[in-house]
Design a protein that fits this description.
Layout: H1 2-8, E1 12-14, E2 32-34, E3 44-49, H2 56-68, E4 77-83, H3 90-102, H4 108-117, E5 127-130, H5 166-173, E6 176-181, H6 188-197, H7 212-215, H8 226-246, H9 255-261, E7 265-268, E8 271-274, E9 284-290, E10 296-305, E11 308-313
Parallel strand pairs: 1-2, 3-4, 5-6
Antiparallel strand pairs: 6-9, 7-8, 9-10, 10-11
Helix pairs in contact: 4-5, 8-9
């Protein structure tokens, strides 16, 4: 689709799996605009990911490996790369045993339960989750017992199986850091309202979906990319107003004018969205962790400015914040 957009000079909007950095090449894809950023100092890391037909995780992992191997900034030895089919079986156990010896997730709950069963929930381990969906420690299904600062239900709550193994998953979650899109500033009430209404909304204007799946979708969780779809249409509406002001006759179909109009900043449901001259969302990532009360805390923000990484810390004492759940002892790497 990207190449067809270039060939026929048609605006193309991306909102889901377009995290691969190649889509930020404005020469190859001059009319592509996406509301997801490109994907992202340890010395030994193990990487687990689950493949799918659109290669979402594959692109993130490729970009991460490229960054890890850049010796001009730092060097990280990737001691293990595991392609996991999300099945809780002997293969996963064997690979985690290898990780235990070498380095000391799509389904975070399954991963956490297996890690706990292998006695890998102690202070010896830190698990770092990479994402671009803006969930942090949350999940797409709402209505849980606890609510995070972003208005979402924490992922350790099993809302489909009467909270089975919540305590086990929650214990492993204390050893996790999550690197995800920053959604600070988004109203928690607005996010809850959207999560509650977006699924049944497909039965109304303009979709009027009348299939059995649509008519019986009450209580179902929203899609993990639903907020990105909201933001890409919001971006299109804002840009269309400007493009029509510039070109009242052909502004709605002039891909060049539309592309220029999309270079803007707005607050969406996935956080602060800034589209650069390449048609790509400027990355603003946050390192999230949990405090002793399992509240989600933003520790570090980082972005790119003219191609240079820029980091800001939201803590003063790392022992009582980042490493609070480890008794204040820093892990064997630094930020």
């Amino acid at each position: 689709m990207g190449h067809l957009s270039t060939q026929y000079k048609k605006t193309l909007l991306g909102w889901g799996f377009l995290t691969d950095s190649r889509f930020s090449d404005s020469e190859s894809f001059p009319y592509l605009t996406k509301v997801v950023p490109d994907s992202l100092h340890w010395n030994r890391v193990a990487i687990y990911y689950s493949p799918n037909e659109v290669q979402y995780c594959d692109g993130i992992i490729d970009d991460a490996l490229t960054a890890f191997s850049d010796e001009s900034t730092y060097y990280v030895e990737v001691v293990q790369k595991v392609v996991w089919d999300r099945v809780d079986n002997k293969y996963l156990s064997d690979q985690l045993q290898r990780t235990k010896n070498l380095a000391r997730r799509k389904d975070r709950r399954t991963f956490a339960k297996r890690a706990h069963a292998l006695d890998m929930a102690s202070e010896e381990y830190v698990y770092v989750l990479l994402g671009t969906r803006g969930f942090g420690f949350g999940q797409s299904m709402g209505g849980g017992l606890k609510e995070l600062s972003n208005g979402l239900t924490p992922f350790w709550e099993d809302l489909l199986n009467n909270h089975t193994d919540d305590a086990v998953v929650k214990e492993v979650a204390r050893r996790m850091l999550t690197v995800d899109i920053n959604i600070e500033g988004v109203s928690a009430d607005a996010l809850k309202e959207f999560s509650r209404n977006v699924v049944p909304r497909v039965r109304r204007d303009p979709l009027f979906c009348s299939t059995e799946a649509c008519l019986t979708n009450d209580g179902k969780p929203m899609s993990v990319w639903a907020r990105h779809l909201h933001d890409v249409f919001y971006l299109y509406g804002l840009s269309l107003n400007q493009s029509l002001a510039i070109d009242p006759i052909g502004g709605q179909s002039n891909a060049t004018v539309l592309n220029q109009s999309m270079q803007r900043t707005f607050l969406g449901l996935t956080g602060l969205v800034t589209i650069d001259e390449n048609g790509t969302r400027v990355p603003l990532f946050t390192v999230y962790g949990l405090d002793d009360n399992y509240n989600q805390i933003a520790f570090i923000n980082f972005t790119l400015h003219d191609g240079t990484p820029v980091m800001s810390k939201s803590y003063t004492d790392e022992a009582t914040t980042i490493w609070q759940t480890r008794g204040g002892e820093r892990c064997a790497f630094s930020f």
